[in-house]
Amino acid sequence: METLWTGPAEHAAIEGRAFAGDWNDQGDILFSWVDLYRLRGTGGNPERIATRAPGDIDLFAGRWLAGGRHYLFHVKDRTSGRGGMFAGTLGSAERMSILSIDSPAVFVEPGYLLFERSGALFAQPFDEARLRLLGEPRRLVERVEASPWVGQSLWASRTTMAFARGSTARWQLTWFDRNGREAGRVGDPLKIVTFDLSRDGSSVV
Fold this sequence. Notes:
Elements: E1 19-23, E2 29-33, E3 35-39, E4 47-50, E5 60-64, E6 70-76, E7 83-89, E8 95-100, E9 106-108, E10 112-117, E11 120-127, E12 132-133, E13 138-142, E14 144-145, E15 154-156, E16 161-165, E17 171-176, E18 182-190
Antiparallel strand pairs: 1-2, 2-3, 3-4, 5-6, 6-7, 7-8, 9-10, 10-11, 11-12, 11-13, 14-16, 15-16, 17-18
């Protein structure tokens, strides 16, 4: 999503690119840029509607629920790296834990939450009014790939689902000398988002 607004004061952090935007029936846009923001369909400046709690990594994958008052979003814990889906309400700082899951879930009419777990796609009934899951999850599809960090990798409407199929990519940290020859490998292949070396080159994080 392109920049929606740039300017001084508290919204200066929105300069650049926001991501994972969603429209509701009133034309309001819910989008992520560290915290969650709403841009009203009538215009004006974005309003911060949900803020990270201590220990949170960025809030993202915000999605409106029917009526445009409640919304869902995904959060990662900075210490454990584990994630969860939460529900929020406009005008309230409270948030309700919905599901412990490492990649964003998607709500789809007439009332299901779709999510990836252990490489499979599940659907579980979800009560929009009470903001809670019902019953047991139903396994739908095997070999589904979901992104744990970068926005959505699963989309759905009342009649159609779209998702990435395959196995999650893993990367091998490998040393190369200055002539481009492989000089050794570090540990086992992992799902690596980013990494950095210590100054003396002896450790990697």
